[in-house]
Amino acid sequence: MNETDRESDNPAVARIRGRYPQYTRRRLEGFAERLQQKIHADRAPVTSLEIAGPTERISVAEALELDYRPVALGETLGPLWATYWVRVAAVVPEAWAGSRVDLYWDSRSEALLWLDGRSSQGLNPGRHTAPLVQSARGGETVNCHVEIACNGLFGAFWNDPQAYALAACELRRFDPEASGFYFDYEVLRQLEADRDPTIKSRSYGTVGETAQPALDRTWAGRLLHDLNRVCNIADPDDRVTWPAAREILTTLLAARNGTIAHEMSAIGHAHLDTAWLWPLAETRRKAQRSFSTAVALMDRYPDFKFACSQAYQYAVIEENDPDLFARIRAKAAAGQWIPVGGSWIEPDCNLPWGESICRQFLYGQRYFERVFGARSTVFWNPDVFGYDAQLPQLMQSAGMSRFLTQKLSWNKFTSPPHHSFHWRGLDGSTVLAHFPPADTYNGSVQLAELRYHASNYKDADRSPEALYLFGYGDGGGGADETMLEALQRMQDLQGLPRIQIRTADEFFDRLAKSAQNLATIEGELYLEYHRGTYTTQSETKRLNRACEAGLQALEFVVAVAAAWQQSAPSAQEIEGLWRTLLVNQFHDIIPGSSIREVYERAEVELAGVAEEANRRSQTVLATLCDSGGAGWTPVNTLGRARTEIVSDPDGVLRHVAAAPFAAGEAIAIDDRVIVAADADGFVLSNAQLTARLDRTGLVRSLLHVASGRESFASPAARLLLLDDRPLDFEAWDIDPFALETARDAGGEVSCEVLSDGGLRGEVRFERGIGRASRLSQVIRLDAGADHLAFETIVDWQERKTTLKVMFPVACHASNATYETMFGATERPTHANTDADAAKYEVPGHRWADLAEPDFGVSLLSDCRHGYSAFGNQLALTLLRGSELPDPQADIGRHRMRYAIYPHQGDWRTADTVGRALCFERPMLWAKGQPRAPLRQSFLTTAPANVIVDTIKPAEDGEGWVVRLYESAGVRAAATLDFGVDMSSVWMSNTLEDRIAAIPTEARSCRLSLRPFQIVTLRVFRQ
Question: pTM score, two decimals?
Answer without folding.
Answer: 0.96
